[in-house]
Amino acid sequence: MRTAYKVIAHIIAAAVVVQAALIAWSMFGLIPSLESGTLPTEPPLSAMLHGMIGMYVVPVLVLALVVVALLGHAGLKWALWLLLAVAVQITLAFVAFESAWVGLLHGANAFALIALAEVGARAVAHAPEHVPGTKHVMRPAT
Fold it and tell me: Which of 6, 93, 123, 130 is most buried (most C-beta within 10 Å)?
């Protein structure tokens, strides 16, 4: 389970990096059109991919990370913080369409997502297999 946790956490961090690359591609493709005075008739594919990864792929991966953390008894704190950060990220994305300056917070929070995913993966990698000095006690079924 620890390996699964680390792999999912690294995939989440990589997905956020891919999103940053996609939105940069989108904006650098859009700037020449705006400079020439033309407006695109539809959003660029890269912008749509950015949105799909952020709205569907990352949240599913984070929920999977929480499940793996629960089953593996490791990294739950980091998975829950990451879940909260993803919820904030999605909220910021929707609010940014109404107030563009919120996009700054959306971009900054992306760094928090990467950090939480990677710190969580490191914490799980270096967590002890068991807590020394504790007794394994069988409890009756209730």
Answer: 6
